[in-house]
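User: I'm curious whether this sequence folds into something compact or stays loose and floppy. Could you predict its structure so I can see for myself?
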Amino acid sequence: MTAFDTLGLAEPLLRAVKHAGFTEATPIQAQAIPSALEGRDMLGIAQTGTGKTAAFALPILHRLLSQRGRPAPCTCRVLVLAPTRELAAQIEASFRTLSKFMRISTALVTGGAKHGPQIGALKRGVDVLVATPGRLIEHLDNGIIRLNTTQVAVLDEADHMLDLGFLPPIRKLMGRLPQEHQTLLFSATMPKEIAGLADDLLRDPVKVAVTPVATTAERVAQKVYLLDAGMRRDLLIDFLRQPDFSRTLVFTRTKRGADRLTKQLGDRGVVAAAIHGDKSQSQRTRALEGFKRGKLPVLIATDVAARGIDVPEVSHVVNFELPNMPEAYVHRIGRTARAGKEGLAISFCTNDELGLLKDIQKVVGQLDQEDRRSPEGRRMAAAAQKQPPKRGGRGGGGGNRNRNQGFGKPKQGGQRSGGQRQGRPQRRQAA
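Assistant: Here's the prediction. I'll summarize afterward.
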């Protein structure tokens, strides 16, 4: 392990790190901070929960220590872009924690919040602006913020932003930056096709990858239950009633599914709340705070939460439904076993999700499985495997992953691409 005082950071930052309870740098911090201090562009890849935020926040704050005076009105010295409101809020809070012994200003600009306070902060000028792309574009178009003097730009969870169709606003925002600036991209995963796009934004970057792409935390035990379609809810309730399921994060594939499951659990006496893109910001904040403080034992979420929840005490993650992309599975289960703790990730898999399970295991390796299907369910699965491959499929009906290339809107109305696996759920953008 590497001590923070060997990385060249200024004394106020070392005091803040010590005050926050950190004694040694994580691998991504130890490798990224020196190059970032040199002003190099960077692509950093590390497992979720390994300290990526501090890996870019500390060198940025070190740079700001040398700045004199306040930022000019309607400008920011540092811009950090994040894909979700929760992650943006988490990043802004980290900057405030690490700048405890400095005099810098931060601002949070996200959708779902009132415009007035955001406009007031931007008009005064801010050292560090943390934002989601959509709301920032609004302020940019309205002349509330200019980026022509911004010195550092950070894209956190860059793969998620690009893969969900944020490329046009990102290009617009990056195009407003001055020619001379530093760009830092950080993510837990970086698929090849997304990495190619990310490379367009970097100049002679340092690449730091402390773990293989899309690997999972070593402290997360993982188990898959093969189930008949109607077995999920009862098995979940059985788990949630066990004492060791003290703080459980449950993932569904859709927003409607999250709301439906929350009501079903409530009807059975299990206290839970849902968090997703259709909830108001106050509802999302209230649910997340209750979960963090232990007052809410169960939080049900779509994949929006996989990139924005940093709760060290999450005991279990349950994939009520498997995600459509293996990378999302990595982010989901990374919500447990944080800050050196251990955790358990449980996944439910029905016959129509076997293709998704196969894709996940190609990325993370073979998972421990327990088959609780009925004899009829096993026979149906065996019969489906003997079916001839669909024409247009990938190597025997493997299905078209369709990463939404070109970043247009996904197909609507349940349309199927030519190679879609029969019975396999369509990929959806769950915000």
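Summary: Residues 391-431 have pLDDT under 50 and may be disordered. The CA atoms of residues 27 and 210 lie 6 Å apart.
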